[in-house]
Amino acid sequence: MTDLRPGEQVGYLGLGSNIGDRRAALQRAVDALPRHGVRVLASSALYDTDPVGEILDQPSFLNACVRIATALAPEELLRACKAVERDQGRTAVPGDPGYVRHAPRAIDVDLLLLGEAPYRSERLTLPHAQVTERRFVLVPLLELQLDLALPDGTRLADRLAELPLDEGVRRVQDPLDLPG
Ligand SMILES: Nc1ncnc2c1ncn2[C@@H]1O[C@H](COP(=O)(O)OP(=O)(O)OP(=O)(O)O)[C@@H](O)[C@H]1O
Ligand SMILES: Nc1nc2c(c(=O)[nH]1)N=C(CO)CN2
């Protein structure tokens, strides 16, 4: 299915933005990933989504998912995602005085899945702990691969079918441009 190079694994990233020019922020993130050792193979369409989580009174998000290929190990890939966020001026990370969980952000790059094996450390959980609970993740992810399953065999399409329909997820735009 994919032209993987030696040592590479397939992974999926979730992108989100709800401040400023949201599409430009997502596109900049995708354009930056190759500089950090991450090839972008495919992008979903863009979705305008109602905020979910601890802070509901904030602007709607623009969300997308991308399929990637990388030879980076899980923690290295997390560092790459954080570096892409920092490139765009996002400085408030957990532990910083300004950090607020689920607060508005110009760019969020989450690591959803990498390869076939789960991974867990203090800094990183794979698959992403909320991947099966968020329509704004599942809808674009399944657009990339309808039969996608977690390492434990959970089929993501089955989980999406079980979620309530009240989390607004509206397909608004065509996929991001792929780098290079
Ligand atoms: N799969 C993962 N992808 C990204 N970050 C993760 C993952 N697993 C654990 N983390 C940790 O979560 C921390 C908080 O991430 P972030 O600031 O993006 O949270 P958030 O977007 O506010 O909330 P949420 O975690 O619910 O998406 C990161 O610094 C990272 O160490
Ligand atoms: N719709 C939507 N809601 C969110 C999002 C997001 O990307 N989209 N990100 C959050 C922080 O991780 C909190 N809430």
From TrEMBL:
UniProt entry keywords in alphabetical sequence: ATP-binding, Folate biosynthesis, Kinase, Nucleotide-binding, Transferase
Keyword hit for Kinase: yes
Cited InterPro entries: Hppk, Hppk_sf
Biological pathway: Cofactor biosynthesis; tetrahydrofolate biosynthesis; 2-amino-4-hydroxy-6-hydroxymethyl-7,8-dihydropteridine diphosphate from 7,8-dihydroneopterin triphosphate: step 4/4
EC number: 2.7.6.3
Annotated 7,8-dihydro-6-hydroxymethylpterin-pyrophosphokinase domain residues: 101-112
Protein name as it appears in the record: 2-amino-4-hydroxy-6-hydroxymethyldihydropteridine diphosphokinase
Organism, as annotated: Patulibacter brassicae
